[in-house]
Amino acid sequence: MSRIQYFVAASLDGFIATAKDDLAWLLEFDGFEGGKESYASFMDDVGCIVMGGETFAWLMEHEPGNWPYPTTPCYIFTHHEFAAPPGSDVTFVRGPVQEFIADFIADAGTKNVWVVGGGNLAAQFAAAGRLDDIILSVIPVVLGDGKRLLPVEGPTPPLQLTASRTLGRGIVELRYSFGSREESAV
Asked: Which of 35, 140, 143, 155 fits as disulfide partner to 11, beta carbons 3.0 to 4.6 Å?
């Protein structure tokens, strides 16, 4: 069965971007030992991508003409009007995430659904009891403030650490599970 996974990098103090969506602190670590292999292995199991409109806009601004997911169905949650990149399989949606879960799972087939970001969108999946895993690369930088990793209301149930490993340049990859969907929906 497909799992809904939030694969993300965050600073030591739990931010995925600065308040102004600056990722320069993260991009300094581009190409670190083990990073490309981790990403490639993760992407081998991704059959559908879900992202927020701000993440989509950031990609369009910073990767113009180079849509990074040309063969993967992507859903973009947004209240803005955007054009899909040429040759992409992009669908723009509005509404609660749970209304579209069946579509994500159907498009993923035997693979997983990747919630790319941002944190607010991932928090909506968690609040709906539909986020299965967080795969977090902790980057050895402290930002002080910014966009939070998972801005949920109140504490989550305890997550289960399913794997951890140290990557290059002091990065630690942590894999957490929310438990079964039945447990997380309670």
From this structure: 143
CB atoms within 10 A of CB 60: 15
Integer Cα distance of 185 and 134 in angstroms:
16
CB 4 within 8 A of CB 113: yes
pLDDT per residue over 145-175, tens digit each?
Answer: 999 999 999 899 999 999 999 999 999 999 9
Contact 133, 177 (CB under 8 A): yes
Contact (Cβ atoms closer than 8 angstroms) between residue 139 and residue 174: no
Q: What is the pLDDT of residues 85-133, one digit of tens each?
A: 998 999 999 999 999 999 999 999 999 999 998 899 999 999 999 999 9
Length of the chain measured in residues:
186
